[in-house]
Amino acid sequence: MTVSARASLRAWLRAPGSLSARLARHGRFEVKVLRQATAKLRAPERRALGTPRRGCTLVREVLLCVDGVPLVWARSSLHKSALAGPWKALKGLGPRPLADLLYRDRRVRRSTLQPKRIAGHGPTQRHMARQWAVATGSEPPRAMRWSRHSVFKRQGAPLRILELFHPAVAALAPYPGTRRPNWRSLAAAVGPAPWAHP
Asked: CA 198, CA 183: separation in Å to the nearest integer?
């Protein structure tokens, strides 16, 4: 069954389970780590995590790619104290997908997915655009505005994940049996990342 680009993107924003696993169905999946460091949390993150204004926090930002094509920018955040306990495995995660920690432990619980169209000139969009340009050598499209976020809890410790989707992800089927990807148009729209294999 063929679906419209708008319906496909809407389905991606609401698809449950592992985003990495869904993307990996379409080709060689890769996580490009852009940053993992102590950083200042933004207001939505503080609200979601219940974190005070002061205190150390950890932020991990990555690109999720299929066959060298960057499709999703993701930002994970948590209170740094959780690295000594429930989320300590995050420190040695490296380029492995975060899904390896989230979906192999039945004790981890996820909140409802919250799709949202982010502000075109807000701090998240500007920060993402700078990282995207450095990592790929090109600017992200202005239409890259649709995101989703959710909070995972393990032993009571929250971890928030924000995922921002390139509009070309709509060329992929989020569920089996809906549509095959058109890689020629997808690669032309996004362009392969400079680290992609020949």
From this structure: 15
